[in-house]
Amino acid sequence: MKSLIKNLITGILVVFSLSLSAQPQQGLRTFDLRDVKLLNGIFKDAQETDLRYMKQLVPDRLLAPYLREAGLRPKAASYTNWENTGLDGHIGGHYLSALAMMYASTGDKDLLARLNYMSSELKECQDKNKNG
Asked: 0.85 exceeded by the pTM?
């Protein structure tokens, strides 16, 4: 595991370094995630691992703290540890960001459905609280 992480970091640094040295006069430019397609290798493997993990998570369990806080009945029990002992809802926010970025990278329709579902459920919470 340590060697995989070391290889990932080294690869990122090399790509970053090469991109800076190749076009120093142009500065940094942004690009859409959909414009980057990973080829077979450690970065594609990492993306596929993340994708599998994201699909194993249950949105209703991540939404449970928000529903409870809004006075609505959760559709599933919260995940344990951080998600039910003081940092309730913390992972849900990270999950929304991860869904958006992974969908932009892969175009996976299941991720878009999850993102839309979670957004609509959070809107219900905001509507119930009447505080945005």
From this structure: no
